[in-house]
């Protein structure tokens, strides 16, 4: 039998991955990953939710930082519209119970290695500090100027415009492969691929050619060549 703590952990993980989750969707996603279906949300451990920075917000479970500002909630909800949810397998999902967990894509290592080589004589520990900071911007508040300021705060000066271009490219690639709330846990690349696939699968509708002497489709009762043609 499902225990309240189990369901609470699912909700925590979902919210850390999506930022915002409707309570009905929490049930649906839980049922997709479990053989024993959940019919409703009862006896949720609110104390544990709060410990993990998750709060109830009307009909939603929301990451605490979003709930603090109504404008943030509305803005993120608008950005989520029409996008599918990324639903990982259980073992991957449960990583998100940790409030500070995030998936590091290959592009994280690419940026880390570049920063270590270009600015820290190969010291990856120092480079990881700045790369972690940049990852935070990619996840929550992506503004390239603000990210480049991170380098300045660490006393790093770029050699030339070409180096700025290289760093900017690596940061953009990291952002495009980062799972973010606005994409319902997907990356920008995954969303773009999904949209491209949808367009490819949509049937092409061909409009029927109207004869000159046929009734005009506008409903006037006149022949097409005497009306809208």
Care to describe what's here?
This protein is mainly α and 229 residues long. It folds into two domains: 4-97, no CATH class; 106-176. 53% of the residues lie in helices and 5% in strands. The chain has helices at 4-18, 23-33, 46-51, 64-67, 70-80, 90-93, 106-119, 124-140, 144-153, 161-176, 188-201; strands spanning 20-22, 54-57, 60-63. Strand 2 and strand 3 form a beta hairpin. Helix 7 crosses helix 8 (124-140) and helix 8 (124-140) packs antiparallel against helix 9. The chain starts with a helix and ends in a 28-residue tail after the last helix. The model has no long low-confidence stretch (mean pLDDT 89). Pfam families: SEC-C. InterPro entries: SEC_C_motif. This is Protein translocase subunit SecA.
SSE layout:
Elements: H1 4-18, E1 20-22, H2 23-33, H3 46-51, E2 54-57, E3 60-63, H4 64-67, H5 70-80, H6 90-93, H7 106-119, H8 124-140, H9 144-153, H10 161-176, H11 188-201
Antiparallel strand pairs: 1-3, 2-3
């Amino acid at each position: 039998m499902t225990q309240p703590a189990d369901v609470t952990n699912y909700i925590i993980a979902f919210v850390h991955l999506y930022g915002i989750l409707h309570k009905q969707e929490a049930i649906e996603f839980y049922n997709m990953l479990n053989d024993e279906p959940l019919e409703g949300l009862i006896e949720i451990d609110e104390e544990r939710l709060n410990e993990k920075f998750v709060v109830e917000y009307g009909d939603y479970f929301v990451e605490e930082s979003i709930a603090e500002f109504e404008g943030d909630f509305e803005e993120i909800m608008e950005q989520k519209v029409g996008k599918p949810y990324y639903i990982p397998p259980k073992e991957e999902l449960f990583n998100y119970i940790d409030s500070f967990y995030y998936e590091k894509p290959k592009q994280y290592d690419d940026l880390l290695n570049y920063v270590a080589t270009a600015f820290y004589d190969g010291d990856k520990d120092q480079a990881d500090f700045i790369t972690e900071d940049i990852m935070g911007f990619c996840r929550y508040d992506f503004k390239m100027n603000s990210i480049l300021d991170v380098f300045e705060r660490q006393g790093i000066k770029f050699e030339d415009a070409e180096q700025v271009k290289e760093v900017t490219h690596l940061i953009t690639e990291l952002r495009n492969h980062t799972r973010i709330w606005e994409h319902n846990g997907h990356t920008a690349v995954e969303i773009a691929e999904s949209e491209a696939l949808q367009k490819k699968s949509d049937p092409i509708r061909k409009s029927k050619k109207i004869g000159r002497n046929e009734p005009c489709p506008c409903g006037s009762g006149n022949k097409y060549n005497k009306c809208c043609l």
